[in-house]
Write a structure and sequence with these properties.
Structural class: alpha+beta
Mean pLDDT: 95
Order of helices and strands: EHEEHHE
Number of strands: 4
Number of helices: 3
Strand order of the largest sheet: 2-3-1-4
Radius of gyration: 14 Å
Distance between the termini: 8 Å
Largest sheet: 4 strands, antiparallel
Length: about 100
């Protein structure tokens, strides 16, 4: 079975819900266009250690190159600009264990 890769986006703070909603509206179709799939999206059911109760998004990819291509694309960068100064988050790609 081929490995999968996951974008794990952990929000630290959201100061503008409207900007985040517009970002999500623009980005959701891009995920599929670049070969990704939304696995999880929302606030955590439980938090531990130094976590904050903010949103988490997990996206699945067949290749990290697909995630990187989306991130670097002009439409994604335009959507990402909506969050500047309004949202703090971590965004990383990890290889699946199987």
């Amino acid at each position: 079975m081929p490995k999968k890769y996951y974008s794990v986006i952990v929000y630290r703070s959201v100061a503008d819900e409207a900007a985040l909603a517009e970002y999500a509206r623009l980005v959701t179709p891009l995920i599929g266009k670049f070969g990704g799939k939304v696995i999880a999206r929302g606030k955590p059911s439980a938090i531990f250690e130094d976590a904050v109760s903010e949103r988490v998004t997990v996206l699945e990819w067949d290749s990290p190159d697909h995630a990187i291509s989306m991130y670097r694309s002009e439409p994604y960068q335009a959507a990402l600009a909506l969050l500047e100064g309004k949202v703090v988050r971590d965004n990383r790609i990890v290889e699946g264990a199987l």
